[in-house]
């Protein structure tokens, strides 16, 4: 196998010019050009020769080359048709890489996991476009793709939200949703000058280690996530008003207050003050109340 070479900015620019590639704003394309950051991503993901890795959005194949050196096998899913011939060229010396052209949100990842890894948990690594970070992460979790971990380059603000604690401005529905499925930790902060073209904001590498079982007991996951959404749809509202205004639960204000009292929550509390275990208890008690109507 060849040595990874695309992390050199000159090589990246040469490829871009050779193929007359135009960066697509609609795909949020920013190519990583710092080998130190690339190694930090792979170290955070703990990629070894035993691993099958799914890469989302390989771009011109910069990180893919590094992954191919460390992993047993890599499948890279790329949505931009114009990058496919570039990837075929830049990855031609790595026999353990498969390129799939397609939208990751429409790709059957459970099938890929079964075919490539016998259905065992896989590792996902990606430099994600900022505009679609949350849908991709939640799709991986909610579709029950067998996951060991997800290691992502994302907008710093999004990474901060994923690992935020109750009470802060970054804490919200994304924090709770991610932390229900995985342990989140930031592995590196990445400035704009590590990319071509430079984004306007800083980025972070975040590692999400998937729990084998959720850390809280939730009897009805669909109801649990409805409660979370209702609690943050109107952040300035109290929790009881958020639940009442959502229209999800068909309970009177007095009935909702009874639920909150059973959970030892004060009437004027806001959703942003509740921890993951408190949301789990709230949804369980709420479910009991609804079932008795």
Q: What is the CA-CA span between the terminal residues?
A: 66 Å
Radius of gyration: 21 Å
The level-1 CATH class of the largest domain: Alpha Beta
Low-confidence stretches: none
Strand content: 15-25%
CATH topology of the largest domain: Rossmann fold
Q: Could you give the order of the helices and strands?
A: HEHEHEHEHEHEHHEEEHHHH
- Please give the share of residues in helix: 40-55%
Give the tally of structural domains. 2
Query: CATH-wise, what's the superfamily of the largest domain?
Result: Vaccinia Virus protein VP39
The structural class is alpha/beta
Number of helices: 12
**What is the level-2 CATH architecture name of the largest domain?**
3-Layer(aba) Sandwich
- Biggest sheet statistics: 7 strands, mixed
Task: State mean pLDDT (0 to 100 scale).
Answer: 93
């Amino acid at each position: 196998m060849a040595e990874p070479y695309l992390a050199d900015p000159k090589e990246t620019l040469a490829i871009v010019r050779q193929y007359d590639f135009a960066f697509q704003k609609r795909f949020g394309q920013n190519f990583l050009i710092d080998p130190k950051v690339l190694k930090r991503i792979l170290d955070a993901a703990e990629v070894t020769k035993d691993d099958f890795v799914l890469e989302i959005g390989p771009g011109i194949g910069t990180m893919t080359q590094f992954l191919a050196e460390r992993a047993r096998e890599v499948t890279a899913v790329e949505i931009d048709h114009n990058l496919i011939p570039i990837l075929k060229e830049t990855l031609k010396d790595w026999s353990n890489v498969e390129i799939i052209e397609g939208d990751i949100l429409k790709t059957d990842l459970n099938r890929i996991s079964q075919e490539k890894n016998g259905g065992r948990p896989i590792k996902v690594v990606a430099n994600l476009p900022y505009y679609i970070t949350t849908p991709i992460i939640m799709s991986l979790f909610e579709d029950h793709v067998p996951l060991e971990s997800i290691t992502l380059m994302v907008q710093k603000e999004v990474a901060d939200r994923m690992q935020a604690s109750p009470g802060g401005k970054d804490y919200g529905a994304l924090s709770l949703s991610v932390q229900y499925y995985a342990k989140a930790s930031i592995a590196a902060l990445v400035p704009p000058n590590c990319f071509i073209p430079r984004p306007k904001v800083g980025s972070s590498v975040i590692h999400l280690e998937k729990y084998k079982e959720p850390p809280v007991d939730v009897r009805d996951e669909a109801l649990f996530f409805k409660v979370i959404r209702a609690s943050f749809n109107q952040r300035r509202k109290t929790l009881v008003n958020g639940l009442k205004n959502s229209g999800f639960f068909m309970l009177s204000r007095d009935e909702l207050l009874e639920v909150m009292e059973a959970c030892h929550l004060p009437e004027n509390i806001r959703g942003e003050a509740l921890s993951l275990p408190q949301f789990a208890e709230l949804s369980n008690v709420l479910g009991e109340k609804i079932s008795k109507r």
